Each structure stands twice: as structure tokens, then as C-alpha cells.
């Protein structure tokens, strides 16, 4: 997921960006980095529910134990049920641009799925002969789980700049189900993450029908996209709501080093490419990036100096496994592991890190907490798997 790219930001442009960041963003905080103490939780068992998936990317649980929706990057959506196993591809999925990192990516259920049966899909869409970008839309899942009806796009990343890299993309509804948040990569064009007239390198916030909320931070600003909620992101790969602090968290790929966990605040600038804890692919500092904090730019809550290539993530807030309480599970692609970060219940800082599933030697793409209180992960491989992880009895 790390594609070498050179770029340059003029000093005048940097000055404008930093002035904007100082005026809008909250004060920058102090990043918490490695090393944190290694910890060991309960021994686990790993159950393979599905094999033979082609680069699966995301999963979503249907209510009432009705099954698990799974996206495959080449453009297939399937459902797995205990009774029937893995289904044939569901009909009605939009055409996707399946090249390099692009294809059919995230999936999410509408907050009112019981009534509407809407499901949301995020995918790479070809826009012209050279470029593609992220599109999000929804359709109605049939009661027999065999097709999607009336699919319609409600959001398109503009302009279209990707040649196959850094789409992101993750979807998350807020706990009340009022708004949909979309995490977008900068399409391997770093400077665009700081440009408010571009939707690259942004978290955007829209209503479930695609309308823009009136209180979005840049709604009334000229030459800024009204959908933007935060900016200065590189390549988000995980997004989830923290159940204890009730805020949105983002997992982002750094360049060479500097993978980040960020707490997302409205109007905030998270720095890329002006500030990073990573370095260039030649091992040298990135010329445009500061090596020290910059006033007005938000420091990551936590970062890894050596990138695990973090991916999907899920907070654990289920009483059925007390040893996992106040933990965040994060997938790792490069390090082929499931990372568990333990939080202090009092001050919320990370106090320990555990690495799981390293013996499987598979890229962990998506991570979710199931309705049974166990952890479910997808492995991003030609022969991808859906795994269920639970403590040994």
C-alpha cells in the first residue's frame, strides 16, 4: 500500500495552509508512540469459517444472526450463513474499477436497516481513461439475500485523481445513525490532502441520503468542499467510533514509518504531508515535512515508527471477554498480525500492546466485533479467509 511518490509544496502554499490550520484546528496534542509495554491476554483459538475468498476487504453483520456480508475487491459481494455457507455473488452490485488497490471496498448497513434494508458500498469508480476515485452509494438488499435493488450513488470523490493507489476508504455511521462519515485517501497526490477544494485526504460527513449537514465546518467557506469534516490525511484504512469517549478514530498508513491512530475532530488538520513521523522511501526525511510538532496541526494519538501497515479496527466493549475490555483491535497488513492495544480505564492512554495471529502469516484486512462477542477478521490474500477468534475455554 506504499507507493513511492515525489511531490513539492511551495513555501507560499505552505504558509497559507499553516495559517488556515492555526485559525481552524484545535491546539495540537502530544503523540504517544512506541514502545509501549508488551502484554499477553488470554490464549485464543482461531476458527476458519470461510476459505477461498479473493482479496476480501470488508464485512458487516446482518441482524438476528442472519449472516455476514463480505466484499471481495474484484467486485463481488457475498453473504455467509451458518446454514448455507458462502453464497454466490449478490446481483446488483455497481461496476467497480478493480485495479491495484481499487475495487469493491467497504460495506455498511444503514442505521434503519430493519425498516429500509439499505446497505452502503464504497468502491473505486473509473471516471475517465486515466483516473478513478472513490464512490459511495446504497441499495436495497432483497429478503432472500440474492440481489441489491435500486442502487444509487450518493457521494463521489472529486476530482478523480487516482491511478490505482490510496483510495482509503472506510464508512462509519455515528452512534445515533444521523450522519455517515467517509474516510478518503489522497490518491497518492500528497499536496491535495491540504487543499480544501479537493476531496483527497479527507474525512467527509454527509447525511445517509447524501445531503450535506448545515453545521459542517467548511460549509460556508468559499473554495472549500462542504462535505469536509477533517483533512490532512494520507491513506485511511480503518475507522471506528470509540464507545468510551464517543468520538471517531482513524487508522492511517504513514509513508515509510509513521502509521497513525487519530482522534477525529471537526475542522482539524492532521498534517499530511506537512508533518509526519515517517520518512521517504529512500530513508531520508521528507523535505516538505517537519520533524517536530507544528502549532495548529493535530499530532496522532499514537503512531508506530516502523509501520505495521495498519488496516481495519474495532473497539472491544463487550462483557463476555473481560480480559479484552478497553481494548482496540487493529489489523496489520505488512506485519501480518492482529494488534491489540490496551487502554488505561482512567486516563485513556495506551498501556500495552499484544500481537496475535502472527503464526498465520496472512495480511489482516478487516477487523470487527461480532454479536457473539468474538473477533472476526478477513485476510487479504488470493485465498482469503474469514476467521473467528475467541479465548480458549
Automatic annotation (TrEMBL):
- Signal listed as a keyword: yes
Alphabetically sorted, this entry's keywords are: Signal
One Pfam entry for this protein is GSDH
Q: List, alphabetically, the InterPro entries matched.
A: 6-blade_b-propeller_TolB-like, Glc/Sorbosone_DH, Quinoprot_gluc/sorb_DH_b-prop
Which residue ranges does the record assign to the Glucose/Sorbosone dehydrogenase domain? 53-388
- Domain of life from the UniProt record: Bacteria
Q: What is this protein called?
A: Aldose dehydrogenase
Organism expressing this protein natively: Alcaligenes pakistanensis
Amino acid at each position: 500500500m506504499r507507493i513511492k511518490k515525489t511531490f513539492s509544496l511551495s513555501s507560499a502554499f505552505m504558509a497559507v495552509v499553516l495559517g488556515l490550520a492555526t485559525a481552524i484546528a484545535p491546539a495540537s496534542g502530544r503523540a504517544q508512540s512506541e514502545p509501549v509495554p508488551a502484554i499477553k491476554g488470554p490464549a485464543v483459538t482461531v476458527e476458519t469459517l470461510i476459505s477461498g475468498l479473493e482479496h476480501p476487504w470488508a464485512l458487516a453483520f446482518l441482524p438476528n444472526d442472519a449472516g455476514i456480508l463480505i466484499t471481495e475487491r474484484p467486485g463481488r459481494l457475498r453473504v455467509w450463513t451458518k446454514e448455507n455457507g458462502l453464497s454466490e455473488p449478490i446481483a446488483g452490485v455497481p461496476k467497480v474499477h478493480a485495479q491495484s488497490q481499487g475495487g469493491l471496498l467497504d460495506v455498511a448497513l444503514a442505521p434503519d436497516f430493519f425498516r429500509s434494508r439499505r446497505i452502503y458500498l464504497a468502491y473505486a469508480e473509473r471516471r475517465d481513461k486515466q483516473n478513478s476515485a472513490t464512490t459511495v452509494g446504497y441499495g436495497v438488499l432483497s429478503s432472500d439475500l440474492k440481489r441489491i435493488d435500486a442502487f444509487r450513488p450518493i457521494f463521489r470523490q472529486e476530482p478523480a485523481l487516482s491511478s490505482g493507489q490510496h483510495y482509503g476508504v472506510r464508512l462509519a455511521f455515528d452512534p445515533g445513525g444521523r450522519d455517515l462519515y467517509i474516510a478518503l485517501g489522497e490518491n497518492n497526490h500528497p499536496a491535495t490532502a491540504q487543499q480544501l477544494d479537493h476531496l483527497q485526504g479527507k474525512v467527509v460527513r454527509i447525511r445517509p441520503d447524501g445531503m450535506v449537514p448545515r453545521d459542517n465546518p467548511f460549509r460556508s467557506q468559499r473554495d472549500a468542499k462542504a462535505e469536509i469534516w477533517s483533512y490532512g490525511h494520507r491513506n485511511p484504512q480503518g475507522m471506528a467510533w470509540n464507545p468510551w469517549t464517543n468520538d471517531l478514530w482513524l487508522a492511517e498508513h504513514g509513508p515509510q514509518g509513521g502509521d497513525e491512530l487519530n482522534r477525529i475532530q471537526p475542522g482539524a488538520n492532521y498534517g499530511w504531508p506537512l508533518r509526519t513521523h515517517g520518512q521517504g522511501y529512500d530513508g531520508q526525511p521528507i523535505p516538505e515535512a517537519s520533524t517536530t510538532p507544528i502549532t495548529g496541526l493535530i499530532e496522532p494519538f499514537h503512531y508506530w515508527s516502523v509501520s505495521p501497515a495498519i488496516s481495519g479496527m474495532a473497539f472491544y466493549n463487550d462483557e463476555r471477554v473481560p480480559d479484552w475490555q478497553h481494548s482496540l483491535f487493529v489489523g496489520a497488513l505488512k506485519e501480518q498480525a492482529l494488534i491489540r492495544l490496551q487502554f488505561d480505564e482512567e486516563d485513556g492512554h495506551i498501556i500495552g500492546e499484544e500481537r496475535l495471529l502472527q503464526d498465520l502469516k496472512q495480511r489482516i484486512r478487516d477487523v470487527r466485533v461480532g454479536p457473539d462477542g468474538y473477533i472476526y477478521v478477513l485476510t487479504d490474500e488470493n485465498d482469503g479467509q474469514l476467521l473467528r477468534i475467541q479465548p480458549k475455554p
